[in-house]
Sequence to fold (306 residues):
Amino acid sequence: MGVKIQTFEGMVDKSRQFRANMERSPWKQFQYENSTITIDVDGKITTEQGIFEPFPCQITNAVICGNSLIATWVDHELRLARMAKISLENEIKNGITKAQLRLNRNTAMVEGAIWCHILDPEPLALMAQGNKVFFALWSKGMYCIDSDANEIWRLPLFDSEAKSPPRSEEVAAISTIRDEKIVVWSKGGKFREIDSNSGAILNESKIEIECDLEKVFNHEEIFLLSSKDGWAWEVRNSQVTVARKLRGTIQDAVFDNEDWRVISWREDILMRGDSVERSELGVQFVKFNNVWHVLDNQGQTSPHMG
Fold:
């Protein structure tokens, strides 16, 4: 999914002390009221209060919405999926284990959640904008709910074309931009601009490239598309302005008002410039004292292109 970059302006770099407590590599990190919340690859959540495991398996999508974390988990073996809202103002509670999930597959929810819902199809993307949460469900549609899980609107998925590659109409990412508008992207490069309040489709088109989109990043209405084969494209006004083949897919990207800073497979990259190898796998951008750093899979941070 597209990622809304959280900046950590003026904060102390706490990732090193978190790594001492974390059991596995970080998957995603958020800022909430001057504290750091880190989710690892197994779904454990590290806060200043400790390490918690509310979900029985890894988290597949997560966003901060107001004072809460809204996240999904999927167990493909058991064909189960849930979406839940967890308060960040209270201590997170530990939930059931994978073994307990097998015994309670139809009733198992998320311990301590404000709300938790069973999802029949797999959730493909998740994004928050103000008090609204947007997500897509495989083969079902695109949904908008408020933070209390009340449905605001829903839309069908992209129409399939006769000669399109398999699964090319699946939702790959949701981008939020200003003026209360979101953009939904398919794996095959279609995009749909939607009024986030009403669900009205403002525009639907396609980028004329062959792609299997995995992630989409944006700075307002400048987009960076990442395909599973390593190709990346900058798109402005529906036109490709930069194209580049990378050694791997993009892990994270941020626009610094001049160029896209990119983390790829053991590389730091400027889309219009050089690349620098790094020893560990980069996970996410964080910002300390006006300098972009990379959080790596060891829980350490170092300057991008450093």
Q: What stands out?
A: The two ends are 27 Å apart (CA to CA). Helices lie at 15-21, 98-103. The longest helix spans residues 15-21. The chain has two helices and 27 strands.
